[in-house]
């Protein structure tokens, strides 16, 4: 070993360690600014009409917990002007997405986001979606435990309270079609017994007409954000473009 | 470290009577296309919620199109030649929240003292107030091209403009074209 190596070997060995430390220190915002901002963990996929399950562990004000739901895509159709369609504007088309959710009565599903992934790979979503587009209006289910000491499922009395679809009260909106929903399961869409298709089970996304022309190739991303791990999501849609 | 993408408008109007004669360049960020369409100085903002500045409002009209996914923008700011930062007024757009692929008109209004106009730059990027500003990725930086003489001319010719935040349909006194 030459004298140069004897002098510098320990510093050369320290270089990778220093690089790791520097990289770690520089990545302190990766979790906040990248991981929580995107969809990074696809946990399932299904073709149109078939259910796909989504289960996620998360931590709320009471501690570690989880939530599970099933969802299927019923349709993606252009929608005209109306209360559900802020658009269409010139050069754009608004699409209504009908989703059918199922979840246990004790599942807290308030933070949810629905987006369309177009044939052009772009993710279309209304930036200011309702608080939870996955829940029917007036029946939001149990409230989240956001801060320590706040019990799960507590909420203000009145319309849409957890008493209706919360723990131990699953019958309030139990589905009319038992093949869809069993005991203790609440369905959240029109298909399973809520009187009319509510805004809660429908999301509207707007996209440029040209980009979204091949809507049969579009896919729906159901992402969970906020209290839920944002990276957990499912993808629904045809795996290949239709040929007919 | 943010990468700064600068563009200097070819020739900004220096008289408020011709604010539409000099459209700016488009900055192609990885997540959005941003074009500074027009600029003027306003004595006050009119509309349902009128607003008067302590100095005068620097009004910047932008055309922004989000690419890839919906855009959550960090609150933009204007920096004077000494790099002092001035926040945008809530009387116009406070930050950018835009749908994918749909061009949106955005009006920013910044309450500035007269001394801050010359040499001012506009900086905007992705992020949100929830995450303490921008995401430390690419930002658009527009040199507004205001010389001391040009700033004085604009200051003296200031006029009321309408308060407007963002949308696909611009206000009547939109400064771009």
Beta fraction of the residues of chain B?
35-45%
Instruction: Note the gap between the termini of chain B.
Output: 34 Å
Nearest-angstrom radius of gyration of chain B?
15 Å
Going by CATH, the architecture of chain B would be: Sandwich
What is the count of structural domains of chain A? 2
What is the name of the CATH topology of chain B?
Answer: Immunoglobulin-like
Biggest sheet details of chain B = 6 strands, mixed
> What is the averaged pLDDT score of chain B?
81
Total beta-strand segments of chain A? 10
Description of the molecule:
The complex is a heterodimer of chains A (244) and B (177). Chain A is built from 3 helices and 10 strands; from the N terminus they run H-H-E-E-E-E-E-E-H-E-E-E-E. Chain A is of the alpha+beta class. In chain A, the strands form 2 sheets. A 5-stranded mixed beta sheet of chain A has the order 1-10-9-5-6, with no helix packed on it. The C terminus of chain A is likely disordered.
């Amino acid at each position: 070993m030459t004298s140069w190596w004897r002098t510098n070997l320990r510093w050369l060995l320290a270089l990778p360690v220093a690089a790791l430390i520097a990289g770690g220190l520089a990545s302190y915002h990766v979790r906040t600014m990248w991981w929580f901002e995107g969809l990074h963990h696809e946990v399932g996929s299904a073709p149109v009409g078939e259910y796909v399950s989504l289960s996620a562990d998360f931590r709320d004000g009471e501690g570690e917990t989880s939530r599970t739901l099933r969802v299927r895509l019923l349709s993606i159709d252009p929608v005209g002007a109306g209360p559900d369609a802020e658009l269409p504007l010139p050069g754009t088309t608004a699409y209504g997405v009908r989703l059918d959710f199922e979840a246990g009565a004790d599942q807290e599903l308030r933070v949810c986001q629905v987006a369309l992934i177009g044939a052009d790979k772009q993710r279309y979503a209304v930036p200011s979606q309702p608080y939870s587009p996955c829940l029917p209006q007036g029946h939001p289910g149990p409230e989240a435990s956001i801060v320590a000491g706040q019990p799960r499922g507590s909420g203000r009395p009145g319309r849409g309270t957890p008493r209706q679809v919360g723990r131990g009260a699953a019958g309030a909106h139990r589905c009319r079609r038992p093949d869809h929903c069993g005991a203790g399961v609440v369905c959240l869409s029109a298909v399973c017994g809520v009187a009319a298709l509510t805004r809660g089970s429908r999301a509207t996304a707007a996209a440029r007409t040209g980009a979204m022309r091949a809507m049969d190739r579009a896919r729906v991303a159901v992402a969970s954000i906020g209290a839920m791990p944002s990276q957990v999501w499912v993808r629904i849609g045809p795996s290949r473009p239709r040929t007919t | 470290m943010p990468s700064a993408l600068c563009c200097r408008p070819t020739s900004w109007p220096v008289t408020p009577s011709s604010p539409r004669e000099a459209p700016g360049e488009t900055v192609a960020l990885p997540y959005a296309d941003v074009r500074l369409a027009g600029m003027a100085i306003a004595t006050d903002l009119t509309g349902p919620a009128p607003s008067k500045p302590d100095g005068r409002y620097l009004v910047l009209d932008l055309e922004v199109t989000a690419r890839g996914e919906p855009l959550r923008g960090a609150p933009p700011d204007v920096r004077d030649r000494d790099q002092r930062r001035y926040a945008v007024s809530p009387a116009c757009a406070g930050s950018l929240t835009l749908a994918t692929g749909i061009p949106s008109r955005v009006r920013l209004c910044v309450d500035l003292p007269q001394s801050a106009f010359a040499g001012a730059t506009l900086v905007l990027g992705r992020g949100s107030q929830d995450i303490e500003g921008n995401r430390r990725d690419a930002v658009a930086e527009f040199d507004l091209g205001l010389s001391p003489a040009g700033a004085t001319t604009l200051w003296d010719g200031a006029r009321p403009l309408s308060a407007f935040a963002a949308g696909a349909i611009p206000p009547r006194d939109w400064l771009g074209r």
